[in-house]
Design a protein that fits this description.
Layout: H1 11-18, E1 23-24, E2 26-30, E3 38-42, E4 46-50, E5 53-60, H2 66-72, E6 74-79, H3 85-91, E7 104-106, E8 112-114, E9 119-131, E10 134-146, E11 152-155, E12 158-161
Antiparallel strand pairs: 1-11, 2-3, 2-6, 4-5, 5-10, 6-9, 7-8, 9-10, 11-12
The protein binds flavin mononucleotide.
């Protein structure tokens, strides 16, 4: 058991604790041919409200992609399938052109929507707040697609594949 009480937590250790919460993996995209395309691997995505339909995610404040997410006022949550682990690695790297060789189409307002995802959720930003070292985006869902196929998972710093354990 790894118990921590001090308020001056070690960041790496806190990240390990928070990373105990298993998530899916998304690539959040924005921009258009008129600006530049951006995409960031993110597991901070969460659903917030069904009526109205609102989701959230957060981006590190130092991200070079932040200006495009702000200028566009829109984002697309692309939920990755098990077959798309390479995209997770690509969009969490600093390769110069993350979209090179990536199959994607144009969504609302020309935003990039990645092909063959488990789900894609196109959103308009309705709230942006700086929270510590991240910027929190809340978006109203304007369009979505989904397919029933295995979702890529991430937990304790590793990629995982899910297996049904017990019905809810
Ligand atoms: C599984 C996984 C989840 C991540 N989640 C986030 C996230 O929610 N927010 C974030 O800012 N960075 C997250 N990252 C890190 C970014 O993907 C990485 O820093 C990327 O280079 C950011 O793109 P940028 O250079 O355009 O800012 C995550 C990385 C991985 C591998």
């Amino acid at each position: 058991m790894n118990t921590k009480l001090s308020p001056s937590f070690d960041k790496r250790d806190l990240r390990n604790a928070l990373g105990s919460f298993g998530t899916g993996v998304t690539v959040v995209t924005s921009g258009s041919n008129q600006s530049r395309l951006v995409g960031v691997t993110a597991n901070s995505f969460s659903s917030v409200s069904l009526d109205p339909p609102v989701v959230l995610w957060s981006l590190g404040s130092a991200s070079p992609s932040l200006d495009i997410f702000d200028a566009s006022g829109r984002f697309v949550i692309n939920i990755l399938s098990l077959q798309q682990i390479d995209l997770s690695k690509r969009f969490s790297s600093n390769v110069p052109d993350k979209f090179e060789g990536v199959d994607f189409g144009e969504g609302l307002e020309g935003l990039p929507v990645i092909s063959n995802c488990v789900a894609t959720i196109e959103c308009k930003t309705i709230q942006r707040s700086v929270v510590g070292d991240h910027v929190l985006f809340l978006g109203q869902v304007e369009k979505y697609t989904y397919e029933r196929k295995p979702t890529l998972l991430f937990c304790q710093g590793n990629y995982l594949q899910g297996a049904e354990f017990e019905a809810t």
